[in-house]
């Protein structure tokens, strides 16, 4: 229908922010009856430690991208 938006199913958050205001927002949304919204941690791939990158090479990127996709797939229908 015109003007209607699909329901929000997930709030994505970077790992360093998953505990603060996003947690509060999630609780407030649940208190308003929006119980089906998931908080999904998504790694923006900016936080790689040089030692990890040397050890894992290109596998580091692939591993984290797969984890991001799997986290989103679990939260969305």
The helix/strand class is: mainly alpha
Distance between the termini: 21 Å
- Separate helix tally: 3
Tell me the strand percentage band. Answer: 5-15%
Rounded to an integer in angstroms, the radius of gyration calculated over CA atoms is 16 Å
- Please count the beta strands (DSSP E, at least 2 residues each): 2
What is the average per-residue confidence, as pLDDT, rounded to a whole number?
Answer: 84
The helix/strand order is EHEHH
Helix amount: 40-55%
Form type: elongated
**Parts with pLDDT < 50 across at least 5 consecutive residues:** none
Please give the largest β-sheet.
2 strands, parallel
Q: Widest sheet: strand order?
A: 1-2
Protein traits:
77 residues; mainly alpha; two-stranded parallel sheet; 3 helices; 2 strands
Overview of this protein structure:
The protein is mainly alpha-helical and 77 residues long. The mean pLDDT is 84. Strands 1-2 form a two-stranded parallel ribbon.
Concise structural overview:
The chain is mainly α. The protein has helices at 21-31, 50-56, 58-75; strands spanning 10-13, 38-41.
């Amino acid at each position: 229908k015109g003007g209607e938006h699909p329901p929000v199913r997930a709030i994505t958050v970077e790992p360093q922010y998953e505990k603060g205001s996003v947690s509060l927002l999630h609780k407030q949304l649940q208190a308003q009856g929006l119980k089906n919204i998931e908080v999904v941690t998504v790694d923006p791939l900016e936080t790689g430690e040089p030692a990890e990158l040397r050890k894992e090479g290109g596998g580091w990127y692939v591993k984290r991208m797969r984890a991001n996709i799997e986290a989103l797939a679990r939260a969305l229908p």
